[in-house]
UniProtKB/TrEMBL annotation:
Gene3D superfamilies per UniProt: Tetracycline Repressor, domain 2 (1.10.357.10)
PANTHER family in alphabetical order: HTH-TYPE TRANSCRIPTIONAL REGULATOR YJDC (PTHR47506:SF1), TRANSCRIPTIONAL REGULATORY PROTEIN (PTHR47506)
UniProt name for this protein: TetR family transcriptional regulator
DNA-binding region: 35-54
One Pfam family of this chain: TetR_C_13
GO molecular function: DNA binding
Organism from which the protein derives: Amycolatopsis rifamycinica
Organism superkingdom: Bacteria
HTH tetR-type domain boundaries: 12-72
UniProt keyword annotations, A-Z: DNA-binding, Transcription, Transcription regulation
Amino acid sequence: MEAQAATTPRGKRTRDAIVDAAAALMYVDGVAGTSVDKVLAASGAGKSQMYHYFKNKEQLVAAVIDRYLEQVLGNQPAIFTLASWADLETWTEQLLDVHRRAGGPIACPLGNLAGEVGDNPKLAPLVDQAYRTWESHLARGLATLRDKGELAPGADPDRLAQAAMTSVQGGLLLAHIRHDITALEDALGIALAYLRSHARER
């Protein structure tokens, strides 16, 4: 059963408050450390409102995954319009800008969840789908490069996007743990170099 959607502006505000509170708590304390009572206290919502929109905690986690994906993609708008090698460089700079801010480098919220629910048969596929959505925008941009003759005809945009994502996630993890953005800078440099190695020869 899917979570209930809000049908009124007031209902949307309440639902959003619940999801935002859960997302903030789960980012710090994880899914296991975030109780429904904590979410209710942080959101100001009542228990009846919570269970009107989310029948169980798994539905709430699913909504949090969607919210994390929105946040992650919102920090890298260039990924939606990739059409050149310069656009790919802009994309990597946008990723770096997020982690150059005060308090950075920060953990990837999807990466946090993946580490906790990676073996959960119901939640792991939802995190994977979020990653696949993220990758799909990169893959679409690479397909555009291939169609423009700037990427080798035999290159596989999906595999290249997956490889780039692997590098990005590793860089995000080490940069956060070490409080050192150079790990992410190097990972993105490696990703770009790997993608460029598949450029069409002139």
